Predict the 3D structure of the following.
Amino acid sequence: MLEFYWVCLIGGVLFALVTIIFGDILGNFLDGVFDVLAMDHLDFLQPMVLVGGITVLGGSGIMLSRYTRLEPLSVAVISLAVAIVVSIIVYFAYVKPMKNCENSTGFSINDLVGKIGEVSVPIPVEGYGEVVIKIGAGLTNQIAANMDHAEIPAGTKVVVGEVKDRILYVFPFE
């Protein structure tokens, strides 16, 4: 049984080293190969969680076998329990928060309807100006026209009423 624990520990350490050294190269090389097997909705099956658990299983099995007088079955059960607990901690302390903090600057212009912005370039009665709108973690400048056919000076807060032909039609926010 000790050999099994050593294989788990060494395999996990080698996986970590290969990932650190060659992670980007392998990721680009294998990009799309495993799309059929993609399980993006199963976050707890991330390699960090699985391989981390296997590595902890091996390490705890070695330590319990060498430094305690427990029976091999007890060592296996305790090592498995420790591996599961560590995997749960890694998932909730690292994987889940990292997934939740991923931000993208991409957006659909139709997502701006109903958003509040500020006029940066005055919008004339019959023409276009520019508004700045906070979207996600950044700001976007967009061409805007007035829905009410009245001039809107710079610095005025506006609401996006609709989008036509990639132009935001806005009205003053009251």
